């Protein structure tokens, strides 16, 4: 091979000039040549290696594989490979035969040569020099680490397979054996998210990972971890990822250095330290072992000692875009301090031991962590740690602070209300502190309604008694809630009994808007309902409607605590608690036995609906009581009783006017319910009463239960009926799915007039945009939710050999492959079935107006992309599927290209673009995103560069609801290099885009990515005007 193929350019020499100078070596040419030989730095590939390369390429060619040669991290030109292999090839016939018959050749690892499959998309680009990673002083870090690495390599066992997840834990790229990739594939995968500082750097990096020395392997993994953490790519909240990352950081010696990394003035270092700090703090919430806590403690001490600032608020709700999928949480941009946690609060609310938590809390306070001492104090009280309580009080925490309580019964949360919910010892301790700080005040001044409510809500009888002994005054709080309300709602019977003994059901002078009985009924507490009734509580008390602003606020609070209060005692008694005593008392007092709930369901129907939750005897008594008092049958009651398999109830309902031909909800007949219940005597009774009885739902139920005798009776009756119901199509599909060709042909002797019906074995996983096939039992209760389609859809997810004959029968009888069929076949990765359809002239119909809820049926290409099946994609395109079709009205809808980008599948991205995919396809209206916006959100830097090179609009508008511009998405997720790429590619900052830019800064800070926010601020030249806009209320409104 000619030396020119590996000769570095002048630009590369200049790039490494400083590094060579920093090394400070003064050596002769002979000394340098000797060392290069010893280190196996080669100028040329020797003859024996070329022979092995030729053998390997020939073997791969016979297997139909293309090949490329990588030498010392550089791709050898094809003409050079051809020239050198031809020159060194043994052309003797017997030598060639021997080579063909030999085992698979392997190029020796020590030759620094790899023969692998060339990648259609190498992910090699010209990058802007302003990217943070390209400005990262890796050479300085390598010099710093060299001494520490030498110490640790002898003592630490490096297991490459244990470190893989820390590098490649990215959706479909994860593997347990990186060697199966090959150098080219591994380099391309790295290039999906990481830029190159020089041409073909990732090839060299991949070769080091696959066959380099332990030192080379370790430094490359460390580099990738630093880059990944700086861009918030790695998910350190997963245990395996955290362990692998810690192994790399400890083994490299990085955690041993004492140099202030902040002095390197690197966005990469700032982002790395910030995200590692956040991950360590968050892991405290889940740490259970002392050893793990000590490891986290060591990381935090190291970060703080090296200059990481603990001053930050971190918001604890989910990101709009989760790893792998969108979250459904609305992005409202709330600035309510209740939703923010300081680092100190995260520590105090963690699962770590009090010893470790106390040490970390002191460490944070020592380094000037921002704090909300009052919330921190409450967390310390919950931990029952007096040392922490005293420490926080010494730093300025207040025993008197009243904090907003976002939910629950307490109006204002104080140190004493928290203690009352925690334990008697804590309550006494806080009261003693309050008394010692206020010797002139009686202790009764500190015991208000919220303190007693807090204790009652948690069933703390001892605390209730103690507080009552100190202060006999019991009042309602600001919401009109009394301690008895809280105890009744939360099911604390003994507390209710205690409170009733102390002050009865009501407090003198207080008229609550709803009674404790209302609360107990709606919270489904039958034991407490019974207790209150025995105490002669008014069962006809009705919750008053609110008229004043204050009363309306109280009603809203009641709704938050105990669902919607309606005041319907008969409905309450026949709902989930099924209280005969309450029902009897209500009816005796004149309540209406035909009372209905808000949905129009009668009390009798409710009792039968909730009957599964009660013993047969009480249920029978409740139904009988309602009927004796004049309850009327509205329809469906007999079906409900049959489903309970309670024929005594059936007879009772028939006695009061029920019919065996009754039809229930969703058209379920008594016959269908009886077949599903598999009640033999009931079926005999029905057929004796109505010999010609038949309906399509019953046919489906008979097929599902395998009741052949009933099935034959129904088939006989079916011949005399019009075959028009859509469930007839369901029955045809079920027969085909079961592979019961005899039944299928019997049904097709009298085929249904319609060709579309509900398909019971299908469901849609919207998060993946793919229809999943799953065989499940037909259930009449669920059929209203079935997706309608061709019966071919039921066999599209089966093994093709099992489905071939049934599919042929269906096609022969005029059933067509609809949109659902193609989607299911693609979801099951069923290439053979799709090919069969195409061979039988079936074509994809994009507009399927006859389908039930067609907007939920996704583009079949989405599934093919998920399966990484190019052959299936090509077939679907030939069948007429539009590569750009996606339904923008679908929640978080995706085009195939957008989906491939979100998955980080660079090969699919290239394939779809070459097939005509629009790189600027607009986003779905709600939670949608363009391809580039998704690349920015997910941190797929290489894919983003590829899209930009193909004309993707950097400033494309976001989705109408819950959308992000590319810059906003990158900022919200802390993607530093992505931010700089977008800015270098024309992301706008001023004019009409100024507000969006400031929103991006706000989003970064909102999610704790202060480094990303600072990078953006610096790029704009942050001004007072910008800060004023930043503070504007509602700037993060999701509609903005």
The gist of it:
This protein is mainly alpha-helical.
Percentage of residues in DSSP E strands:
under 5%
* Structural class by SSE content: mainly alpha
Low-confidence stretches are 1-6, 171-176, 315-339, 542-567
* N-C termini distance: 61 Å
Q: Number of DSSP strands?
A: 13
Helix content: 40-55%
Main sheet makeup: 3 strands, antiparallel
Quote the average pLDDT: 79
Topology-level CATH name of the domain at 727-882: Serine Threonine Protein Phosphatase 5, Tetratricopeptide repeat
Relevant CATH superfamily of the domain at 727-882: Ankyrin repeat-containing domain
- Shape assignment: flat
Query: Counting H and I runs of at least 4 residues, what is the number of helices?
Result: 54
The CATH level-2 architecture of the domain at 727-882 is identified as Alpha Horseshoe
CA gyration radius, whole angstroms: 36 Å
CATH class of the domain at 727-882: Mainly Alpha
Order of strands, main sheet, comes to 2-1-3
Could you state the oligomeric state of the chains shown?
A: single chain
Structure notes:
- The chain is mainly alpha-helical.
- Among the domains are: about 1-115, no CATH class; about 120-255, no CATH class; about 265-315 and about 335-400, Serine Threonine Protein Phosphatase 5, Tetratricopeptide repeat; about 725-880, Serine Threonine Protein Phosphatase 5, Tetratricopeptide repeat; about 885-1040, Alpha Horseshoe (Serine Threonine Protein Phosphatase 5, Tetratricopeptide repeat).
- The protein is about 50% helix and about 5% strand.
- The strands form six sheets. The chain has a three-stranded antiparallel β-sheet with strand order 2-1-3, with helices on both faces.
- Strand 11 and strand 12 (about 770-775) form a beta hairpin.
- Helix 9 (about 185-195) packs across helix 10 (about 200-210) and helix 50 runs parallel beside helix 52.
- The protein is flat, with a radius of gyration of 36 Å.
């Amino acid at each position: 091979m000619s030396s020119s193929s590996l000769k570095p350019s002048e630009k590369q020499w200049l790039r490494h000039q400083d590094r060579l100078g920093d090394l400070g070596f003064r050596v002769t040419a002979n000394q340098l040549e000797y060392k290069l030989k010893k280190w196996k730095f080669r100028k040329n590939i020797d003859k024996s290696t070329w022979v092995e390369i030729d053998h390997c390429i020939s073997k791969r060619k016979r297997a139909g594989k293309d090949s490329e040669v990588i030498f010392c991290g550089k791709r050898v030109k094809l003409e050079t490979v051809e020239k050198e292999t031809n020159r060194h090839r043994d052309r003797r016939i017997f030598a060639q035969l021997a080579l063909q018959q030999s085992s698979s050749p392997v190029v020796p690892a020590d030759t620094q040569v790899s023969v692998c499959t060339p990648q259609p998309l190498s992910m090699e680009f010209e990058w802007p020099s302003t990217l943070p990673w390209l400005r990262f002083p890796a050479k300085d870090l390598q010099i710093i680490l060299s001494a520490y690495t030498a110490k640790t390599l002898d003592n630490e066992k490096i297991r490459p397979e244990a470190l893989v997840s820390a590098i490649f834990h990215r959706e479909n790229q994860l593997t347990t054996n990186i060697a199966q990739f090959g150098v080219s594939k591994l380099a391309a995968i790295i290039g999906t998210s990481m830029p190159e500082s020089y041409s073909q750097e990732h090839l060299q990096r991949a070769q080091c990972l696959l066959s380099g020395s332990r030192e080379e392997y370790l430094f490359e993994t460390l580099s990738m971890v630093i880059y990944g953490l700086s861009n918030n790519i790695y998910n350190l909240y997963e245990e395996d990822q955290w362990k692998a990352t810690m192994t790399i950081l400890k083994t490299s010696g990085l955690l041993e250095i004492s140099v202030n990394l902040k002095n390197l003035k690197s966005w990469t270092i700032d982002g790395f330290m910030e995200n590692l700090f956040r991950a360590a703090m968050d892991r405290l919430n889940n740490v259970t072992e002392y050893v793990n806590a000590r490891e986290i403690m060591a990381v935090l001490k190291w970060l703080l000692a090296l200059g990481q600032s603990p001053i930050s608020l971190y918001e604890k709700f989910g990101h709009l875009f989760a790893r792998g999928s969108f979250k459904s949480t609305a992005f409202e941009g709330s600035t309510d301090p209740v939703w923010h946690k300081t680092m100190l609060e995260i520590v105090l609310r963690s699962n770590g031991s009090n010893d470790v938590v106390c040490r970390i809390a002191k460490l944070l306070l020592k380094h000037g962590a921002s704090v909300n001492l009052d919330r921190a104090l409450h967390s310390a009280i919950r931990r029952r740690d007096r040392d922490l309580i005293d420490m926080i009080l010494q730093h300025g925490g207040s025993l008197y602070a009243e904090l907003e309580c976002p939910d629950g019964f307490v109006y204002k949360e104080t140190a004493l209300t928290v203690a009352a919910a925690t334990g008697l010892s804590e309550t006494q301790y806080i009261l003693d502190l309050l008394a010692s700080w206020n010797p002139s005040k009686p202790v009764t001044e500190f015991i208000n309604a919220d303190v007693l409510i807090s204790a009652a809500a948690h069933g703390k009888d001892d605390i209730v008694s103690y507080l009552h002994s100190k202060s006999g005054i019991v009042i309602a709080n600001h919401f009109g809630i009394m301690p008895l309300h809280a105890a009744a709602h939360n099911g604390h019977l003994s507390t209710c009994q205690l409170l009733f003994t102390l002050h009865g059901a009501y407090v003198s002078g207080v008229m609550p808007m709803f009674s404790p009985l209302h609360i107990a009924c709606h919270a489904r507490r039958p034991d407490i309902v019974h207790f209150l009734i025995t105490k002669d509580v008014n069962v006809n008390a009705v919750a008053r409607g609110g008229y004043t602003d204050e009363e309306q606020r109280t009603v809203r609070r009641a709704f938050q605590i105990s669902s919607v209060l309606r005041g319907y005692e008969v409905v309450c008694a026949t709902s989930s608690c099924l209280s005969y005593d309450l029902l009897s008392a209500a009816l005796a007092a004149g309540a209406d036995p035909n009372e209905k709930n808000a949905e129009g369901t009668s009390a009798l129907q409710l009792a039968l609906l909730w009957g599964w939750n009660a013993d047969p005897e009480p249920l029978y008594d409740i139904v009988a009581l309602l009927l004796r008092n004049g309850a009327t049958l509205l329809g469906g009651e007999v079906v409900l009783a049959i489903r309970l398999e309670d024929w005594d109830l059936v007879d009772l309902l028939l006695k009061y006017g029920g019919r065996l031909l009754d039809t229930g909800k969703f058209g379920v007949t008594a016959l269908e319910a009886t077949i599903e219940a598999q009640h033999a005597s009931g079926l005999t009774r029905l057929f004796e009463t109505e010999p010609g009885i038949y309906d399509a739902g019953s046919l489906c139920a008979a097929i599902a239960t395998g009741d052949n005798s009933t099935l034959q009776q129904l088939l006989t009756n079916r011949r005399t009926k019009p075959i028009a119901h859509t469930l007839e199509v369901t029955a045809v599909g079920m027969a085909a799915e079961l592979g019961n060709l005899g039944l299928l042909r019997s049904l097709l002797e009298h085929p249904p007039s319609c060709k579309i019906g509900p398909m019971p074995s299908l469901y849609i996983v919207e998060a993946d945009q793919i229809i999943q096939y799953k065989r499940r039992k037909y259930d009449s209760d669920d059929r209203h939710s079935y997706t309608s389609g061709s019966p071919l859809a039921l066999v599209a997810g089966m093994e093709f050999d099992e489905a071939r004959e049934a599919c042929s029968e269906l096609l022969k009888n005029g059933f067509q492959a609809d949109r659902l069929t193609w989607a299911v076949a693609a979801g099951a990765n069923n290439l053979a079935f799709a090919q069969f359809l195409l061979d039988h002239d079936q074509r994809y119909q994009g507009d399927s107006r006859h389908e039930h809820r067609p907007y939920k049926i996704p583009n079949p290409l989405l599934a093919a992309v998920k399966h990484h099946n190019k052959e299936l994609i090509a077939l679907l395109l030939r069948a007429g599927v539009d590569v750009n079709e996606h339904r923008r009205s679908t929640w978080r809808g995706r085009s195939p290209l957008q989906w491939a980008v979100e998955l980080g599948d660079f090969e699919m991205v290239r394939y779809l673009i070459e097939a005509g995919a629009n790189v600027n396809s607009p986003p779905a209206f709600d939670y949608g995103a363009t391809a580039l916006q998704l690349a920015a959100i997910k941190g797929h830097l290489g894919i983003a560069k590829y899209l930009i090179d193909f004309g993707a609009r950097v400033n494309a508008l976001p989705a109408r609801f819950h959308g992000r511009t590319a810059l906003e998405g990158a900022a919200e997720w802390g993607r530093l290099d992505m931010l700089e790429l977008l800015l270098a590619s024309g992301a706008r900052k001023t004019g009409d885009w100024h507000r969006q830019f400031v929103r991006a800064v706000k989003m970064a800070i909102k999610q704790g990515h202060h480094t990303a926010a600072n990078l953006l601020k610096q790029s704009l030249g942050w001004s007072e005007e910008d800060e004023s806009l930043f503070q504007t209320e509602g700037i993060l409104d999701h509609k903005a």
